[in-house]
Design a protein that fits this description.
Shape of chain B: globular
Structural class of chain B: alpha/beta
Number of helices of chain B: 10
Order of helices and strands of chain B: EHEHEHEEEHEHEHEEEEHEEEHHH
CATH superfamily of chain A: Glutaconate Coenzyme A-transferase
CATH topology of chain A: Glutaconate Coenzyme A-transferase
CATH superfamily of the largest domain in chain B: Glutaconate Coenzyme A-transferase
Oligomer: heterodimer
Distance between the termini of chain A: 34 Å
Helix content of chain B: 25-40%
Order of helices and strands of chain A: HEHEEHEHEEEEEHEHEEEHEH
CATH architecture of the largest domain in chain B: 3-Layer(aba) Sandwich
Shape of chain A: globular
Radius of gyration of chain B: 19 Å
CATH class of chain A: Alpha Beta
Largest sheet of chain A: 10 strands, mixed
CATH architecture of chain A: 3-Layer(aba) Sandwich
Number of domains of chain B: 2
Distance between the termini of chain B: 33 Å
Strand order of the largest sheet of chain A: 4-3-2-1-5-10-11-12-13-14
CATH class of the largest domain in chain B: Alpha Beta
Strand content of chain A: 15-25%
Number of strands of chain A: 14
Strand content of chain B: 15-25%
Chain lengths: 264, 285
């Protein structure tokens, strides 16, 4: 907990939640994106449509799911469809306004690696891989990315292109025939970033309260560009903080509960 | 025509060394009991197919049963990495395995094409994605009407598919409910399908008309195994054992610990042991 009464991770989740609108149709990645999307739903965007790749459309979980297929997602969904239908009709069909992704490795153009560290055929670390991300990244109208900053995570060159952001920058998406906007927003635990309109390089547009430019640079593996007019991200409101903390407390109790019952 | 069989016999009659096999379940209705029976019977050189290979593929790979995996997400959902699969891919332990990696969209389309009797699936995918450069089974075709370049992958046609489902009626028709994932496509794509169910009911007369029901003649064998999906879940019967997924991360991290766990919880157990494992999860479902 900082002197401000909230942690950098709480600020990240809440800043990410604010980017979502009530009429968004959001394809939700697990982890940080899932928390942000549900805080949005529980605060300013009650009618947001949250979709998890397990086929649950319009879900409203009371606790955050551990996996993308927890039963709670189906029980609270408007409808649950088969996985081929999810990817064909709903994602490929162009019905998703925001794809919300996390990343193990990210570069300055919003390209994401969650596949391997090291060489693909002889990896140093085999990560889980892309799952739905390769097509979420190209079929959603826009992509939001959220991750905590580290030098290992935010790198000059990613080891593998799990999902395509802006490639080498500029009009690279267009050249590959991709007609969606790609990454338009990056929310970290320190700052809010947007791509430069021409180069598409992520540029810091807002620092979270109390964060310095130096802190952002020290935890990022590339030379950081800052916007000329830097904003300060508004601190979390009491409602936002309480909503997030309640959600996380419910989630913790629910996930630990099964373990305790098992031991009994 | 479908036969009701004890799980041991259903697995023995339908799975062979060297088969390509899908134990499907998209985080829900994972056929754990069937996978454990396959482990006890010690099959070798399997090509394991699954969108989300999780604990059961970690277990089969760790026991040296797989020569190849075809997948789109090799993780412990919500927890992290699969440590036995990692050991095989990174270190060739206990044996090296061949890897064919796709995206979810690629696998889902490939299963659907398999169910539809097509040789390949065509979809808008893999644009700018590294997988297209490392997996020779990801190719492209040009739409003859618009000129758009689309991704193509071979259809998935497993020798045998195993799924878990909620219930069968006495004739052997099977109902799948909740997150239905890829269960129907995986069954229809396969040469043979084996289904474990929570229970058998007299008939399905009271069901809504558009539910996911697999007619009995699409299935080779049904085995009744209550709790057979644990630590996954069966919608309407018992909840997901999230704690078990968290625990697995620690068990699988160590080769010796893994072997000891497999001996005590799989090799020395049988299908009847699953019911007790979900007792504490039933009221939560």
């Amino acid at each position: 907990m900082s002197e401000f009464g909230f942690t950098p991770n709480e600020m990240m989740t809440i800043a990410a939640s604010r980017a979502l609108r009530n009429d968004d149709v959001c394809f939700v990645g697990i982890g940080a994106p899932s928390a942000a999307c549900n805080v949005a739903r529980l605060t300013h965007a009650p009618d947001i449509t949250l979709i998890y790749e397990s086929g649950t459309i319009g879900t409203a979980p009371d606790v955050l799911p551990l996996s993308i297929g927890d039963g709670e997602l189906c029980e609270t969904a408007v409808t649950t469809v088969a996985v081929p239908e999810m990817f064909r009709y709903w994602l490929q069909g162009g019905r998703i306004s925001i794809g919300f992704l996390g990343a193990a490795q990210l570069d300055k153009f919003g390209n994401i690696n969650t596949t391997v560290i090291g060489d693909y055929l002889h990896p140093k670390t085999r990560l889980p891989g892309g799952g739905g991300a390769p097509e979420i990244a190209t079929s959603s109208k826009e992509i939001y990315i959220t991750m905590a900053q580290t030098k290992r995570g935010m790198v000059e060159t990613i080891d593998f292109f799990t999902s395509f952001g802006h490639g080498e920058g500029g009009d690279h998406r267009k050249r590959l025939g991709i007609d969606t906007a790609g990454p338009t927003l990056l929310i970290t635990d320190l700052a809010i970033w947007k791509p430069d309109p021409v180069t598409k390089e992520f540029t810091v547009v807002s620092l979270h309260p109390g964060v310095t430019r130096q802190q952002v640079q020290e935890s990022c593996g590339w030379v950081v560009k800052f916007a000329e007019a830097l904003d300060e991200t508004p601190a979390p409101s009491e409602l936002e903080l309480n909503t997030l903390r309640d959600l996380q407390a419910r989630t913790k109790a629910a996930h630990e509960g099964t373990g305790k019952a098992k031991a009994a | 025509m479908v036969k009701f069989l004890p799980l041991k016999q259903a697995v023995a009659e339908n799975l062979n060394d060297g088969d390509s096999v899908a134990f499907e379940g998209f985080t829900h209705l994972i056929p754990t009991a069937a996978a454990h029976e396959a482990i006890r019977q010690g099959f070798r050189d399997l090509t394991l197919i699954r969108m989300t290979p999780d604990l059961i593929y970690d277990q089969m790979i760790g026991m040296g049963m797989a020569k190849k995996i075809i997948f789109s997400y090799v993780g412990n959902p919500g927890v992290g990495l699969l440590r036995r699969a990692r050991d095989a891919i990174e270190n060739g332990f206990p044996r090296s395995i061949e890897v064919e990696e796709h995206s979810h969209a690629g696998m889902a389309n490939a299963y659907e094409a398999g169910a539809a009797g097509l040789p390949c699936a065509v979809f808008r995918g893999y644009r700018g994605a590294g997988l297209a450069t490392v997996n020779p089974n990801i190719k492209s075709v040009t739409c003859p009407f618009t000129g758009e370049v689309l991704a193509a992958v071979p259809s998935i046609r497993p020798d045998v598919t195993f799924i878990h489902a909620q219930k069968a009626d006495k004739k052997g028709n099977v109902l799948v409910e909740g997150i239905i994932g890829i269960q129907k496509e995986a069954v229809l794509a396969a040469k043979r399908a084996v289904v474990t169910v929570e229970e058998v009911v007299d008939n399905f007369d009271d069901l809504h008309p558009n539910l996911t029901v697999l007619p009995r003649w699409t299935i080779a064998a049904i085995s009744v195994v209550p709790g057979g999906s644990h630590p996954s879940y069966a919608h309407g019967y018992y909840a997901r054992d999230n704690a078990a997924y968290l625990e697995w991360d620690e068990i699988a991290a160590d080769r010796g610990k893994f072997q000891a766990w497999m001996q005590a919880n799989v090799i020395e157990k049988n299908a009847d042991d699953f019911a007790a494992r979900v007792d504490h999860l039933r009221k939560a479902a």
